[in-house]
Amino acid sequence: MSFLGRSLCFGDFTNNDRLPCETDLWDRGEVAPNEPLFVTSATSIKATPFGRLCQVALLLGRVINHRNDRQDATSAAKFVNAMQLQRTITALLRLVTAEFEQDPAAFCIPLAMGLSTKMVLCQIYSCNTHSPLSKMVEEADAQVAALTDLKTVPEEVASFHRRLTEQVDVSKIGPLICPCLYQAIVIITYFLRETCDRQLEKSRMPLINCLRILKGQWAVAGIYLDNVLSDNGISL
């Protein structure tokens, strides 16, 4: 999966689609509720790791389509949509983070992809220099939200990584965690060069070392690592 410049290779879902029900109950042949893919607010229904991954992948796809959509590029509605996506990401990450704390091995990929989704949206609106629109308040609101998240999300990834390595053998994790690590390293490197805050290095080096470990299992981790160690990996 590479989403920095491409669309995801799956179609959209319908409002009638539902997430898989809890695996343990299903395996025992018991009846169990299943949550709709689209909900207006968080529910108390327990979702499976695969179900959460479906939700996060759908949201990532919507962020990518939002970024690539040029039809409303001259409309304030694009910024309103961006703020709605930002609130949805925040709400879903709150849910997945709590589930990750309970079972790091099972929910690490949904959380990693959710954090990646947040960083993709941040990087769309963190700089408005090249915006084709005449400046409007909605654009300013979107930029403020993006910059606020951009400053905090690297520490969220670092915290995620610390908790993960305490509980899980990183070398056995799938490659879908790699984009999250890479994006966080890029953002931290940018702020490190701009602010010269050496404390940022404490967050950055463990993420780089994690890519080194994953490189032994997944070639894509080596590609991300090479980008980090070259000038290609430090610009936003």
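the 2nd protein, sequnce then structure:
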Amino acid sequence: MRKTYAAIRKTIENNQAVGVLAGYYDRDLTIAYISEFFLHNLGYTYEEFMEKFSGSLKNVFCGQNCTFAKIERFKKIHGVGEAQMLNKEGAPVNVRVYKKDTIDSEGNALWILSTHIDEMQENLELVNQVLSSGFWSVECAQSGNPESVFFSHEFRKMLGYHDTLDFPNNLETWERGIHPRDLEEVSRTFQEAFQDKTNEKKYDVEYRMRMADGTYQWFKDKGEVSRRADGTAFRMAGIFINIDAEKRARQYTQRVDAFHRAYTTANLCEYYVDLQENSFNSLKVEETLSGLFEESSTWDELIDLPVLVVDDDQNCCENTVALLEEIGIDGEWVTSGEEAVNLVAARYEKENDYFAIIIDWKMPGMDGLETTRQIRKIVGNDVTIIILSAYDYSEIAKEIIGMTGAEVVTAENGKTAVDMISSGSEGDFDLIFMDIQMPVMNGYEATAAIRTSNIPAARSVPIVAMTANAFTEDVQLARSAGMNEHISKPLDMTRLRDVMRKWL
């Protein structure tokens, strides 16, 4: 027994302010040693403790969440765990237990438990429970390097695990659970916090952790390092909070914003098309996509929504689908209108329509408008169709105005428009739609030049301003420049028809 005490004494020397309980790996897990500090914490004398628990470790632990209470698993447990013991009054006491196996000089297998009741830790764990978070701590060797790890029951529960056999108390288990894309940053931040003796570098990270069911969820992990006088770390403790819902909502918003920016940067103009009503309800990309996504109120509802992308440029298709997939949408793409119509028809027969269809305006063969007409014949108005175009707005306006039956001529800028009218014949133009924002000469300047030209008809030909805004000051500026009417972009077919009837 004296040689056994030598092994126990070494454990006591390495663990200050702890209770030590030790014994043999015999049938009853017989207790061979109890420290005075251990007995004091629980309120027992040596005789009272041995009598109450029959000198066996089997009867010491209690509580459903106690990982040490399942004796059949006791031999497999190593490192730090959590446990409950009954004090003299019969009340359960939460303790942290560090289990170590050793062999005495006579070859007997020996277990040694270092128990620690930490009031500050208990208070922190109470806060953690209120915050629905988990508690963890890392104990360090004299060198300041991590030596043992403890994960609370709440920590494991958040991941879907139940005890230390499912999720052992070691850094390797934790690191294996971190998403591969997050592991490098998390490990670097963790090590920097440990090694920085000034405590300026903080461990405060967000990362994905693998759950017991194999899925990943987002967690916020924050810890503080406690140091000795020489700056070496002796403990790091922290909290672990599930932020999956918040993070995914934030990612969703960021990704939708990125999606919008990508199209805005590419200077894409889009239109929501309803050809059965023979109207173009023109919308900005931001408004259309926001409206589409608002129909799905949660992140989960967006997952796997089918969207078809139609563009003769394969790179454009692939990039668009990649953007869609980043926000959880299941994107497909084809490079022709004919393929799109066939796919839509096949899905319609299976009662599995697309959530939305994004179509390029200008494509060889069946263009965006004709593709839309054919799709509308199949699905009616139940599927949203977005037509995208990277072409100049004047070309889009020409197509729209041309749908009314008018013969349309375009000018690339204000100066060209003035030259065309000044060099033309009397009555060449019955109506002028003047874009305000143009290179070389803007719409206001071009209108003033037309009104002062030598062509009599130019002074009276109706000129309609087209601007992106419909504020009162914009209308007044247009009239002051000599324009007769104002129409805002994107074009609304009803408003367009009314203006044309008025001036033609």
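Residues 273 and 485 are 25 Å apart (CA to CA). The domain at 2-117 is CATH 3.30.450.20 (Beta-Lactamase).
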